[in-house]
Design a protein that fits this description.
48% of the residues lie in helices and 15% in strands. The protein is built from twelve helices and eleven strands.
Length: 384
């Protein structure tokens, strides 16, 4: 009898348990739905809110501040109590309606010129350069010595040169010399092509030059290497196109930065050109890039050193007559010697040999000479 009552009681409580459980599930689901609706409302309000505007902090005037908006206009505005420690030049967030400052953007200031330059810590050593002993000595005196031992110049009471100009035919080792002196002084090597400084819109090229020197000072000791200097430093003319006038503006900014009120200190400039004859005298006058170092095509002794450097890691067979090879290379630049050595290696690999013989080198020299002749004929065809 008791068993029957107990069974009936259990059967009655089971629907109640299931009902209570379903109610709890519904309530939990209701809570989740309310939270979701609240988040959606917040998101919707955020979308409806007017966009804030970025501006630049200029200076404080009492409790207020002067700001500069993107179009260049300046306004005296209120500052929100939540914003602390604003400094001139800070990027700030303002309301579009009354331009009240509501926030400050914490961000690292990135110099725009970085997208146009190559920043490197070269590892080129002096012993990797052959046939340029005189040029090495001059660069060491003008660039390396002031960076390594500035106290010598202070004792004597003279200011070291600000930079040098390397000139000569293509492929003779001008860039290598610049990288070697950067490596020997542990300097940041900032490389830019002169044509990159010439921009489409008025004032952009001058701004890039200004940022270039700002970057160099921030990374000091540093060496600014401007390749194809003639692209921005050619002789100025009185009448020209708008593009030519923009080049002149960029050039004037370069001169201003070299002369500048701010001392260059541990920043040195190395210009490089194949066309020294068209450079404006203003860039090479005393006090600027007045040290001009010619980097010529190597003579036979120089060729021997360069050939030795490039063939040192290569496997040469015993039949290679180096004197004959060097006589065939007369007139080659350092870059052409390197190209001939690489081509000789390809000739050996095509015949599945592990060493380079006399024939490989002779064929490689002929190939490099042929390429040079074709390039020369195309140049004459364009301008002759």
């Amino acid at each position: 009898m008791n068993t029957t009552k107990s069974t009936k009681k259990d059967s009655d409580s089971k629907p109640n348990y299931e009902y209570n459980k379903s109610v709890q599930d519904v309530e939990q689901e209701n809570v989740l739905l309310k939270e979701t609706i609240f988040q959606l409302k917040v998101e919707l309000d955020r979308y409806r809110a007017p966009a804030l505007m970025l501006a630049e902090m200029v200076e404080y005037v009492g409790p207020n501040a002067i700001i500069k908006v993107p179009n260049g206009n300046k306004f005296l505005v209120n500052v929100s109590s939540s914003v602390k420690k604003l400094e001139p030049g800070d990027t700030i967030v303002v309301e579009q309606k009354n331009l009240t400052i509501v926030d400050k953007i914490q961000k690292e200031r990135r110099i725009e010129v970085e997208q146009f330059v190559i920043i490197d810590k070269p590892k080129t050593r002096w012993k990797e350069i052959g046939g340029l002993e005189e040029q090495e000595q001059e660069i060491k005196e003008v660039i390396e010595l002031p960076l390594k031992r500035p106290e010598l110049f202070k004792k004597i009471g003279i200011k070291p040169p600000k930079g040098i100009l390397l000139h000569g035919p293509p492929g003779t080792g001008k860039t290598l010399l610049a990288k070697a002196v950067a490596a020997s002084t542990n300097s940041t090597f900032i490389e830019i092509v002169g044509s990159e400084l010439v921009q489409k819109f008025i004032g952009e090229g001058a701004k890039l030059v200004k940022d270039l020197f700002k970057l160099a000072r921030a990374r000091a000791p540093s060496i600014i290497f401007i390749d194809e200097m003639d692209a921005i430093a050619s002789k100025r003319i009185d009448v020209g196109t708008s593009g030519e006038r923009e080049v002149q503006r960029t050039f004037m900014q370069l001169l201003a930065e070299i002369d500048g009120f701010k001392p260059l200190d541990n920043v040195k400039i190395i210009g490089c050109t194949n066309r020294k004859d068209i450079l404006d005298p203003a860039i090479t006058r005393p006090g600027r890039l007045d040290r001009m170092i010619e980097v010529p095509v190597p003579n036979k002794a120089g060729l021997k050193e360069i050939f030795k450097i490039h063939t040192k890691p290569m496997s040469l067979s015993k039949d290679v007559k180096k004197d004959k090879i060097l006589s065939l290379m007369i007139g080659f630049s350092g870059a052409e010697v390197k190209a001939a050595c690489m081509e000789a290696g390809y000739f050996a690999m095509r015949e599945k040999r592990n060493s380079i013989n006399q024939k490989d080198l002779e064929q490689a020299i002929k190939k490099v000479k042929k390429i040079e002749a074709e390039d020369s004929s195309e140049y004459i065809g364009m301008f002759g």
